[in-house]
Amino acid sequence: MRVSIREPRSSDAEAHRSAVLRSVEHLAPWNPVEPDGLPELLRRQGEGLRTFLIINDEDGGIVGKCNVANIVMARFRNGALGYDSYVPYNGTGRMSEGLRLVVDRCFTAEPRGLGLHRLEISVQPDNVRSVAMAKRLGFRHEGFSPRMLYINDAWRDHERFALTVEEWPGV
Ligand SMILES: CC(C)(COP(=O)(O)OP(=O)(O)OC[C@H]1O[C@@H](n2cnc3c(N)ncnc32)[C@H](O)[C@@H]1OP(=O)(O)O)[C@@H](O)C(=O)NCCC(=O)NCCS
């Protein structure tokens, strides 16, 4: 493992800003680009949203960010993963390592983990790198949802992938 995961803190705001600004070109087609978005994201952390930063162990840089959003407990215990990787770490396999750690944390029982049973990833069909990521993590293709999310000024179709804890081999 070349990476570790941790929750973001307010002192990460500047490093997060630089990482997003370095990465605009590959983020912009697929996700909102919010270099100054960390403080607001920290304010929104709670039962329904947990964010993890993926940290490169060698230099402490931010490899990427993963939101576990729309968390619903009770009989569902479900969350939706959304993620971005940042220059210069993108395409080096570190994001895949980090997301494996996030999935593992999600499926680990409380209080160490989030105690979830099922995770979803929704990806625009043309987002080849993210579709590859969902498959690399072992997520199953579950279906196609027309006009699912509002991104870049339009309702975008998404392919839906999912994984339950029974299918997760662990890290
Ligand atoms: C989707 C996204 C998060 C993928 O991140 P990434 O940085 O490419 O992730 P990784 O580096 O872990 O991906 C592995 C790639 O690195 C390559 N790689 C290089 N060295 C590697 C190593 N030592 N181990 C594993 N893979 C390695 C793999 O071959 C793979 O390339 P491939 O996809 O061409 O096969 C990133 O492209 C991104 O942020 N996109 C924009 C935002 C976005 O689309 N978010 C998701 C919305 S649903």
Overall description:
Helix content is 26%, strand content 35%. The relative contact order is 0.15. The model has no long low-confidence stretch (mean pLDDT 98). The protein has one domain (3-167): 3-Layer(aba) Sandwich (Aminopeptidase). It has helices at 13-22, 24-27, 38-44, 94-107, 128-136; strands spanning 3-6, 50-56, 62-72, 78-85, 118-123, 140-151, 154-164. A hairpin with a 2-residue loop joins strand 6 and strand 7 (154-164). The protein is an alpha+beta fold and 171 residues long. Coenzyme A is lined by residues 26-27, 30-31, 83-85, 90-96, 123, 127, 129-130, 132-133.
Q: Determine and state the CATH class.
A: Alpha Beta
Quote the distance from N terminus to C terminus: 10 Å
- Write the element-wise H/E pattern from the N-terminal end onward: EHHHEEEHEHEE
Rounded mean pLDDT is 98
Major sheet: 7 strands, mixed
| Low-pLDDT stretches | none
Strands, count: 7
Coarse shape: globular
Radius of gyration: 15 Å
Helix content: 25-40%
Indicate the proportion of strand residues: 25-35%
Task: Domain count, please report it.
Answer: 1
CATH architecture: 3-Layer(aba) Sandwich
Number of helices: 5
CATH-derived topology: Aminopeptidase
Small-molecule binders here are:
coenzyme A
Fold topology:
Elements: E1 3-6, H1 13-22, H2 24-27, H3 38-44, E2 50-56, E3 62-72, E4 78-85, H4 94-107, E5 118-123, H5 128-136, E6 140-151, E7 154-164
Parallel strand pairs: 4-5
Antiparallel strand pairs: 1-2, 2-3, 3-4, 5-7, 6-7
Bound molecules: coenzyme A.
Coenzyme A binds next to helix 2, strand 4, helix 4 and helix 5.
Protein name: Ribosomal-protein-alanine N-acetyltransferase
Keywords: Acyltransferase, Transferase
Family: Belongs to the acetyltransferase family. RimJ subfamily.
